[in-house]
Design goal:
With 215 residues, the protein is mostly beta strands. It has helices spanning 3-15, 20-25, 126-132, and strands at 27-43, 51-62, 68-77, 90-95, 103-106, 114-115, 134-149, 155-164, 171-178, 192-198, 201-207. Strands 6, 7, 8, 9, 10 and 11 form a six-stranded mixed sheet that branches. Strands 3-2-1-4-5 form a five-stranded antiparallel sheet. The N and C termini lie far apart (53 Å).
Length: 215
């Protein structure tokens, strides 16, 4: 990158402009917004919407590659800030092919379909939770497709669940998990489904679709 290119990139970072090179040539990804910190810098171009430069902490899910966390400095219309729900909101993203820390967020496009890479740690897999977890029942609060699949091609859903373990207090979790198409009739508010969870990590919860009669 030449001197003018470096100056242009530095100015773009300062003003929160999207990384045009990454947006054009980057690998498609989804990004979950974990936190957003608005800065004191706002920009208005012409008679357009006022945009505020923000620091976004994101969990990035590149297509077919391991997920990771990073931060992105980028601006977005101020009126859209209230719509961001940390830990829930998903946005389209692009990742630089040679530098995964260079990420561009696209607030105007739907998150693209991606395939999650297999976990490098088998203790974090759904199979491990199903094999080693304690049984319980859960009540579905909500469930929605994530427009992604696991490494085996099974669609992923995000669930809000109330877990009701025997002899313990109920607790609520939000978790993503593989959900075969035949399970769709069981995904509605109030549905009661069998789950497995790890006592030392209650957020590690997986619906036991086989015990629910889904195969």
């Amino acid at each position: 990158m030449g001197i003018l290119g470096k100056l242009g990139k530095g100015l773009s970072n300062l003003t929160g402009g999207v990384d045009a090179e990454v947006m054009k040539n980057g690998i498609p990804a989804q990004a979950v917004v974990l936190a957003v910190v608005p800065t004191g810098t706002t920009i208005e171009i012409g008679n357009g919407l006022v945009e505020r430069v923000c620091e976004f902490a994101v969990q990035v899910f590149p297509d077919g590659a391991p997920e990771y966390r990073t931060t992105v400095r980028q601006r977005m219309p101020e009126i859209m800030l209230a719509r961001i729900q940390p830990g829930v909101s998903r946005v389209a993203a692009k990742v630089h092919p040679q530098d995964q820390q260079r990420v561009a967020l696209d607030f105007n496009a739907p998150p693209p379909p991606v395939r999650r890479a297999a976990s490098q740690d088998p203790r974090h897999s759904a199979a491990h939770v199903l094999a080693m977890g304690e049984p319980a029942y859960a009540v579905v609060i909500s469930g929605e497709p994530l427009n992604m699949t696991n490494a085996q091609g099974v669609p992923m859903f995000a669930f809000d669940l109330t877990i009701m373990p025997e002899g313990r207090d109920p607790f609520q979790v939000r978790a993503g998990m593989p959900t075969p198409p035949r399970a769709l009739p069981l995904i509605f508010p109030g549905s009661r489904v069998p789950v497995r969870f790890l006592p030392d990590n209650p957020n590690a919860v997986v619906i036991d679709w086989l015990s629910a009669g889904v195969n």
